[in-house]
């Protein structure tokens, strides 16, 4: 059976974490969450990634988004490892919870498996307040993630959601740059919806499908 993916509800597992036990849906309720997995504690790439998450935590807080880590060791090991992460991340504190999965029972249920290695991966799900997956990345254990890209993708999701998915963000988009209008929106609707107007790219097909606008 394929694992959970975009649009699926994350199973409401009870998880043990560095902040105690809770049910995933209780954690997800009322905000967006970045749920990110790691192959194991006291490993080099994971240490840099969790340190970067601690450094970027204020950016997620500003957006009202929670962080939730997972690593395939137990809670005591996570607590010991956090001392190394904080020493490496120079002044940043790991304030977000980290799920314990010492027996690797949780990662398959969250589809955070590397199918080539048949083991833990660097998976990342952005989960909405409805506990559904809005975006997923799957990296092998040899490739550390880019936190700027995590934030950029999150900003795109939040912007599209704010505008009821009537807009989308183009290649390499960053906040404050123009967005594009969804093909599902007609020019007549777009005129009413976007008070700043829109610019249609003059392309050889003359189909008028590439329309940029500005939103906040
Ligand atoms: C790491 O975090 O450095 C790592 C973990 C598992 C395999 C390879 C690298």
From TrEMBL:
Similarity remark: Belongs to the peroxiredoxin family. Prx6 subfamily.
Occurrences of domain Thioredoxin (ranges): 4-159
Claim: Oxidoreductase is one of the keywords in the record: yes
Protein's recorded name: Peroxiredoxin
E.C. number(s) listed in UniProt: 1.11.1.24
EC supergroup of this enzyme: oxidoreductase
Function: Thiol-specific peroxidase that catalyzes the reduction of hydrogen peroxide and organic hydroperoxides to water and alcohols, respectively. Seems to contribute to the inhibition of germination during stress.
Reaction(s) catalysed by this chain's protein: a hydroperoxide + [thioredoxin]-dithiol = an alcohol + [thioredoxin]-disulfide + H2O
PROSITE patterns membership: THIOREDOXIN_2
PANTHER family linked to this entry: MCG48959-RELATED, PEROXIREDOXIN-6
Keyword entries, A-Z: Antioxidant, Oxidoreductase, Peroxidase, Redox-active center
Gene: LOC104758108
Pfam (any one): AhpC-TSA
């Amino acid at each position: 059976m394929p694992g959970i993916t975009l649009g699926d509800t994350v199973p409401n597992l009870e998880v043990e974490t560095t902040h105690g036990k809770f049910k995933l849906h209780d954690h997800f309720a009322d905000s967006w969450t970045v749920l990110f997995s790691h192959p194991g504690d006291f490993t080099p790439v994971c240490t840099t990634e969790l340190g970067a998450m601690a450094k970027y935590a204020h950016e997620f807080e500003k957006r009202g988004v929670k962080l939730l880590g997972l690593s395939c060791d137990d809670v005591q090991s996570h607590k010991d490892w956090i001392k190394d992460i904080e020493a490496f991340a120079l002044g940043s504190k790991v304030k977000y919870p980290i799920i314990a999965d010492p027996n690797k029972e949780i990662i398959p249920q969250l589809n955070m498996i590397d199918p080539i290695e048949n083991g833990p991966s660097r998976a990342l799900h952005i989960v909405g307040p409805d506990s559904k997956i809005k975006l997923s990345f799957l990296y092998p254990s040899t490739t550390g993630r880019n936190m700027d890209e995590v934030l950029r993708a999150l900003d795109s999701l939040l912007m599209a959601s704010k505008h009821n998915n009537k807009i989308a963000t183009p290649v390499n988009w960053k906040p404050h740059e123009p967005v594009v209008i969804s093909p599902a929106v007609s020019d007549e609707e777009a005129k009413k919806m976007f008070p700043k107007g829109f610019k249609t790219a003059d392309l050889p097909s003359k189909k008028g499908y590439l329309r940029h606008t500005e939103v906040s």
